[in-house]
């Protein structure tokens, strides 16, 4: 039996994981401050810039779920440390590329590393801070989303202005190696130390050829057929049409959806009656299927997943295209645009994330649906402000409205994550967190970034970007549906412990 963590060790772990999350979003978002210089040097279109953003998102989304499973099965510390090392290495290598394909590959592998971090870190924090104070802890962990995201833009713009975009990538990639070493020495609050070896990884994920084909054949078939169709379309219409990428992406999404659907249908109808669930591990694919069944049988999670996809579509799309929009529409350099967004973004984003967590926990003393209310309120206040923001061309007014809008839109991060852990059994918490990341990014910003890029090539970025805050507002309305179901789902989770 692992002894409960001390208060000091819990806060140290939270601080370290929050710092890693900050670096996570610095390395994730730094490319958005470099879009225009990269476009000039590598002779790219806006559509290709959008696909550079989606390269990371697609791989991150697909990888988050299996890494969530691996975190539940094995050592969360080892998964986090390995992920940080991988994303840091390929962020550094992004500064050495000479073509669109090379940069696309590096950004894709960055997604693999960062996918290993998210579910495992959230699961660890949930165990360090059970129940009371959880939304505040999740808010602190999530503060890296706003702080790191804006800092990535600020650092990227500054470093690009002084040293060039290649040095910007290489500089932000270095600190991760130190943090990977520190996190590998954390003590897991609820689990005995588990060694992560290549043999155990292959065993837990059933990575032989036959079980891999049996479990993934819809996805593998989609890759082969979609790739063949994309090759034929490229030869027929040329790479400039982008029809090949659209068809391949659609085939990949359909194959992934069918694969997950098969896993969910394969799960026993009554999880509680499945003796292997409590007494052993029947394999990673069964673990994923159980998580899928949990989501579909928990109405609160359905609302949260749908709203999360809309939030991801709108907010991450704005983060991705914001620096380029500001640079073009306000006639600023990349460094000046990043400085304009970073000056108040660091303060308002971090303050909004922490305020949302504190407000949700304070209101929850009186209403059990407080966390949902805070999420919806922040989105429904910030969404219209963001829509107005994108019509402003005066830099002073733009900065003031940006600060207020970003403050409100940052409220959701801690409470949203806390709601997931409120209604999910701890045994599969990291797996469900991984499923959440997979869904919101594949259905959200993986679509938003190239879609806005394609619309920008045709109609102009000033018009294309207006779609994003509209979707955020719809997400704020959708999440309100969880108010009707949260109490019942929380009670069911408590009874099932």
**What is the first-to-last residue Cα distance?**
18 Å
CATH topology of the largest domain: Growth Hormone, Chain: A
Structural class: mainly alpha
**Strand element count:** 0
Number of domains: 2
Mean pLDDT: 77
Give the oligomeric state of the chains in this entry, treating copies of one chain as homo and distinct chains as hetero: single chain
Major beta-sheet overview:
none
Order of helices and strands: HHHHHHHHHHHHHHHHHHHHHHH
Shape: globular
Can you name the CATH architecture of the largest domain?
A: Up-down Bundle
Q: Ranges with pLDDT <50 over ≥5 residues? A: 267-283
Question: Any idea what the CATH superfamily of the largest domain is called?
Answer: MFS general substrate transporter like domains
Helix content: over 70%
Task: Tell me the layout of helices and strands.
Blueprint: H1 7-29, H2 35-42, H3 46-73, H4 76-93, H5 100-128, H6 134-163, H7 165-173, H8 176-183, H9 198-204, H10 209-237, H11 243-266, H12 275-279, H13 284-296, H14 299-329, H15 334-364, H16 370-389, H17 395-409, H18 413-422, H19 429-442, H20 445-459, H21 461-464, H22 467-479, H23 486-495
Helix pairs in contact: 1-5, 1-6, 1-8, 3-5, 3-19, 3-20, 4-5, 4-7, 4-8, 5-19, 6-7, 6-15, 6-18, 10-11, 11-13, 13-19, 14-15, 14-19, 14-20, 14-22, 15-16, 15-17, 16-17, 16-18, 16-22
